Amino acid sequence: MDQAKQFNLPEQPRDFGFFVDGKWVETGNRKLVERRSPAHDVLVTRVTRCTVEDLDDAVAVARKAFADRRWAGLSGSDRADVLLRAAQGIRARVDELALLETLETGKPIAQARGEVLGGANIFEYAAGGARALHGDTFNNLGDNMLALVTREPIGVVGLITPWNFPFFILCERVPFILASGCTIVAKPSEVTSATTLLLAEIVSEAGLPDGVFNVITGSGSEIGQAMTEHADIDMVSFTGSTGVGRSTLLASAGNFKKVGLELGGKNPQIVFADANLDDAVDGVIFGLCFNAGQCCVGGSRAVVEKSIAAEFEKRLKEKFAKVRIGDPLDPRTQMGSIITTGQNDTILSYIEKGKAEGARLVCGGGAHAAKVGQFIQPTVFADVTMDMTIAREEIFGPVLTITTFETFEEAIEIANDTIYGLSASIWTTNLDKAAQAFRRVQAGRVWVNTTITGGPETPIGGFKQSGTGRETGIYGVEEYTEIKTVHIALGGRNHWVA
Ligand code: NAD
Q1: Domains in the chain, start-ordered, CATH in brackets?
Q2: 455 CA to centre of ligand 1 in angstroms
Q3: Residues 165-212 pLDDT 10s
Q4: CA nearest 101: which of 32, 160, 159, 38?
Q5: pTM for this predicted structure
Q6: How far is the CA of 167 from the centre of ligand 1 (A)?
């Protein structure tokens, strides 16, 4: 596609059934979830409000597909072939997927396209994981004993995903789960289900056996909750808010299912006085504005050395004014709309709280004027102390706090003064300082002189209340396996009963 290609709003909303056992299931007389584009307020998709019975049926299908080994019994090489063909299928439908993603999320089309192609790239990486997955042997237990440690797919995985990166986050999970040999019942966010449904079709067309990847759409509190409680689901991989993550963990206790949690963050951007200031300013702006701040690893807390704070603030303000906010269908747009009116209200109320708590407004501070849709100005508060709500709670919008420090120890203390531990960025030209800081900062992902970057080779996940478990990398395949130890006696038995 030409990067400058302009898409138009669709004239009709697109209707979706749901996907079970390799086939589309029609909505029939079930209720619908209607999605209006948050940037245009136009009806763009309609998906099915599935019932708990639909979920039970899909779990039974996934269980059968796991138990009869139609997928788990294949070689890693055969599984990899399917994942590689699926990557081609994603690339072939990039325009369709990117447009739906933009219409449902309000994210810029150029970004959506990058995320779809990134998803294909992850499938290609994970295909290697299907072949690389292996166990271990113990050949040091004496001549009469050999032990093996094997990895086996855990079984039926319930996959619950959020609305902020519906396709990309899905692709950070699905090919790894499939590489391990598991089967899946996925439930996307009710406001962004379209691309998850299409992925199921694409992987099916790539040769995935029926019943291995099923998608149920509908409400989180009903279907999501039922998934976490389901006695026939072996593992739940949940990505979303820390609050729902906690309820997932509790609900999963029923059958002791394994739980992978990727949750919220309040991620520091530590800027030392010796940083390349222009790079740091640009990185902090990108880290805040990417996906309109609705990004779990977004750097929403600038922790800045006092001696450069005034200059940092000045350059930040100048550059923020240049961020292109607007229609996400315009290929030049850098920052689109906020996902729902509810989330928009939440962000605006945090901005008001910041003002009321005495933080100093540097720029932004409210809605971004638009004829239609909900947009928020990138907003910066300075003189923020760590007891303020805006410094502690995840806002999930383009709101930055600036807190200053004078010593290295103080910087680390502020960075770690949070219940979260998802990511952190460190800006300095001093390698020693960078290494000392990345050792001390409590976060699953740390960036030095950059932010929000990486590839499927490396694992992602959180410390503290940002989650448990890891996705992507070879860890991301292992995450969906059980470990089995096998002892083999050699050369006959030394009898216990004479
Ligand atoms: P959310 O927790 O409201 O919803 C996430 C998913 O859970 C959705 O599919 C939703 O339908 C479902 N759900 C809702 N209630 C449920 C319940 N009771 N039981 C089971 N499932 C339920 O989160 P969101 O608003 O969609 O996404 C924003 C949040 O996700 C932010 O906190 C963000 O930090 C987090 N997030 C984390 C990561 C990460 O990798 N750590 C990535 C993206 C988003």
Answers
A1: 14-263+466-484 (3.40.605.10), 267-448 (3.40.309.10)
A2: 22
A3: 999 999 999 999 999 999 999 999 999 999 999 999 999 999 999 999
A4: 38
A5: 0.97
A6: 14
